[in-house]
Amino acid sequence: MAAEATSWQKEQVSRAFVHALATQGGYTVCDWNVDKDGVDVTLRSRGLMVDIQLGVFCLE
């Protein structure tokens, strides 16, 4: 189960990073609980909308 917890933690860090960048840029962030269409987060600003699929990569 350690692998699941690590994956879950990495996803949460990725979401927090996107939230921090979006907040700094003045964007609205929409989080999706279900990843049905491969979209984890949507950013919105002034009528523009961008869907983002998060991914975590580890270089060793």
Describe this structure in words.
With 60 residues, the chain is of the alpha+beta class. The protein has one domain (2-52). The protein contains 1 helix and 3 strands, in the order αβββ. The chain has one helix at residues 2-25, and strands spanning 28-31, 41-45, 48-52. The protein has a 3-stranded antiparallel sheet, covered by helices on one side. A hairpin with a 2-residue loop joins strand 2 and strand 3 (48-52).
Topology:
Blueprint: H1 2-25, E1 28-31, E2 41-45, E3 48-52
Antiparallel strand pairs: 1-2, 2-3
Quick check: average pLDDT? 84
Q: Biggest sheet: strands, sense, closure? A: 3 strands, antiparallel
Span of the ends, CA to CA: 22 Å
Q: How many E strands?
A: 3
Q: Could you estimate the helical fraction of the residues in percent?
A: 40-55%
Could you say which overall geometry the principal axes of the C-alpha atoms support? globular
Strand order of the largest sheet: 1-2-3
Structural class: alpha+beta
Rg from alpha-carbon coordinates: 13 Å
Low-confidence stretches: none
Number of domains: 1
How much of the sequence is in beta strands? 15-25%
Elements, N to C (H/E): HEEE
Count helical runs: 1
